[in-house]
Amino acid sequence: MEITEFQKLMYDLYAHNDKRRGAAATTLWLVEEIGELAEAVRREDMENLREELADCFAWIGALANLFDIDLEEAFLEKYPLVCPTCGKNPCICTD
């Protein structure tokens, strides 16, 4: 699945709820999921880690849809197949 397809799926499934909820509340849901992701990382719980990564990705898609941002376009603009800091692939930055 391409990022654009994923974002369209999130729109079709959840945009009506996301619009009703609004950007602030949607962001809070994302932050909650990031907390759950951090907990899964801390516990090294691979099964839960997969689930929480998927949840975070879904909420990011919801926010992008609320602001009418094409994630694939934004990502490639920021990360044009090279590191945005050093301009290399792979990155040679020390941090």
Walkthrough of the structure:
The structure is a single chain. With 95 residues, the protein is mainly alpha-helical. It has one domain: Helix Hairpins. Helix 1 packs across helix 3 and helix 2 packs antiparallel against helix 3. It is globular. The model has no long low-confidence stretch (mean pLDDT 96). InterPro entries: MazG-like_dom.
Short description:
This protein has 95 residues and is mainly α.
Work out the strand percent. under 5%
Could you give a short account of the major beta sheet? none
The CATH superfamily label reads MazG-like
Oligomer: single chain
CATH topology title: Helix Hairpins
Q: Over all CA atoms, what is the radius of gyration? A: 15 Å
The ordered string of helix (H) and strand (E) elements is HHHH
Label the structural class: mainly alpha
Strand elements, count: 0
User: What do the pLDDT scores average to?
Assistant: 96
User: Count of helices?
Assistant: 4
